[in-house]
Design goal:
Length: 246
């Protein structure tokens, strides 16, 4: 069954069309990586699903429910959680308090406590630093914290915008290893945006490449050639012409 179905989505900001008739389906349990150059519309896609940006046309159905135009709180309550780019932690709150913010309207205290414990198992550094102010954490630790906060809502679909931005490769590896663990243990459906396609290969999921608001390439990244990816990323019709030496 498709957990998310997007049909013919059009998003404009004034005169700029950020998404052109974009359609996309994601099955429950799937991992989908969205890649593409600057300004391709990647963040707009996530924000539109989250209800932060209203589309001019098209529909978003999440778990069988039409959520186009719904308020972000309504969409979150349906089982959707978004980790925006930029690692926005509450600097003066502790790690634990930041995680608790993510629980939102959840009432079941036992389930919340179990999830808190689980998130700290997945990201042990959050347990070690539980009582530290979030503003004192490193960039990688803050990225783990915002993902952990997103998980505290107990989502079925977690979307993350550029988790590796500005992180050392080793730290990015740790973040992805945790995400892959979540996928298996929690059967979490993941939609992750990254500018580069290299991480898509590692996740073993499906890759979509966006350029100028359109899906220009889609498939299993292990079966796509570097040439296909470059063509789609840069929009070459053919091999780039190289200057010939006389
Ligand atoms: N709030 C906004 N107002 C006006 N134009 C916007 C706004 N947000 C995005 N855009 C424009 O919409 C297009 C898509 O932007 P978006 O941020 O979705 O791209 P992106 O693929 O996430 O890029 P990046 O890799 O830089 O994060 C770009 O042309 C961008 O300039
Ligand atoms: Mg973006």
């Amino acid at each position: 069954m498709n957990l998310l179905e997007i049909h013919d989505l059009n998003v404009r900001y004034g005169g700029i069309t950020a998404l052109h008739k974009l359609s996309l389906s994601i099955k429950a349990g799937e991992t989908v990586m969205v890649t593409g150059p600057n300004g391709a519309g990647k963040s707009t896609l996530l924000k539109t699903i989250a209800g932060l940006v209203k589309p001019q046309h098209g529909s978003v159905v999440f778990d069988g429910q039409l959520i186009t135009g719904c308020a972000p709180e309504t969409i979150a309550a349906a089982g959707f959680s978004m980790v925006p780019e930029g690692r926005q932690v509450f600097n003066s709150l502790t790690v634990l308090e930041n995680l608790r913010v993510g629980t939102g309207m959840r009432r079941n205290k036992l389930a919340v406590a179990a999830d808190l414990d689980y998130v700290m198992d997945v990201f042990p550094v959050l347990r070690e630093r539980a009582l530290s102010q979030a503003g004192m954490l490193s960039g990688g630790q803050q990225q783990m914290l915002v993902i952990g906060r997103g998980l505290m809502a107990a989502p079925r679909l977690l979307v993350i915008d550029e988790p590796s931005l500005g992180l050392a490769p080793l730290v990015t590896d740790q973040v992805y290893e945790a995400l892959m663990r979540l996928r298996v243990e929690r059967e979490l459906t993941l939609l992750i945006v990254e500018q580069s396609a290299s991480r898509a290969v590692m996740t073993g999921g499906r890759m979509l490449m966006l350029r100028e608001g359109r899906i220009v390439l889609e498939g299993d990244p292990r079966q796509l050639t570097a040439h296909q990816m470059q063509q789609a990323y840069f929009g070459y019709e053919d091999e780039p012409v190289t200057a010939s030496t006389p």
